[in-house]
Design brief:
The chain has 249 residues and is an alpha/beta fold. The protein is built from 7 helices and 11 strands. The longest helix has 15 residues. This is Class I SAM-dependent methyltransferase.
């Protein structure tokens, strides 16, 4: 499977993940982002893989200077429409995170909802180096990733669920050599199958990401297990890693 992310994030994606549009979830997550990053008004933030801008726009409403970057032209156009309706200022950029080229422009970078790990090991690492380059000295990076310990314990190979007016059939597989999880989905409406799609993400442990961050020039700070700020453990729903660029060379 090659470059699955190029056309994965579209109208059907939003129907598969309707909870991603829930206002209360966005508010909870942005509250957490503010606390974890210890943000001050006017802080420059890069929302890396910003999607349709739900975090970017809420952060801008709270007085932060936000840039959102995403590969999906569909999501970027949707974000630009939303920000115009909300009458706040956010710069949305359609670009590939593997080629972003910022130089010490941001006080903080966020990457939410497992939006990293899509590429080869070398490319994933290069993205972290680019994040470090984008941060000012002392800047912070918040990486929200799935908890691999929960995944290993509760992974179900075949399942289905309904959401809204669609049914989603899932076939999940784990490659123990490449350490990637692949999810093949069939999306069904009353009239029949409307879409078949799959996505694949590299599985990283907390220790692996910590090591990669260090090699990229970022110092590990802590790991949270959820958006309430609880400590990370094997039962945590998320693995949210906080790192910081050193203040001195």
């Amino acid at each position: 499977m090659k470059d699955w992310w190029k056309d994965y994030f579209d109208e059907i994606y939003l129907r598969i993940y309707p909870h991603s549009s829930r206002k209360e979830l966005t508010l909870q997550q942005v509250d957490f982002i503010e606390r974890a990053l210890n943000l001050e008004k006017g802080t420059r933030i890069l929302d890396l893989a910003c999607g349709f801008g739900r975090h970017s726009i809420e952060l801008a409403k709270r007085g932060y200077n936000v840039t959102g970057l995403d590969y999906s032209s569909f999501f970027i156009e949707l974000a630009r429409e939303k920000v115009e309706n909300e009458k706040v200022n956010v710069e949305f950029i359609q670009a590939d995170m593997r080629t972003m080229d910022f130089h010490e422009e941001f006080d903080a970078v966020i990457n939410m909802f497992t939006s990293w790990g899509y590429f080869s090991d070398e490319e994933n690492f290069d993205v972290l180096k680019r994040v470090c380059r984008a941060l000012k000295r002392g800047g912070r990076f918040l990486l929200d990733f799935f908890n691999p310990l929960m995944l290993f314990k509760h992974m179900v190979e075949k399942s289905w669920y309904s959401t809204g007016d669609i049914y989603v059939l899932e076939d999940v597989s784990l490659d123990p050599i490449k350490m990637r999880i692949t999810n093949k989905r069939i999306v069904i409406e009353k009239g029949g199958v409307i879409d078949r799609r799959e996505h694949s993400v590299r599985i990283y442990t907390n220790q692996e990401i910590t090591w990669l961050l260090k090699q990229a020039g970022l110092q590990y700070v802590t790991t949270y297990g959820d958006f309430d700020g609880n400590e990370y453990n094997e039962k945590s729903r998320r693995m949210i890693i906080l790192a910081q660029k050193l203040k001195k060379k």
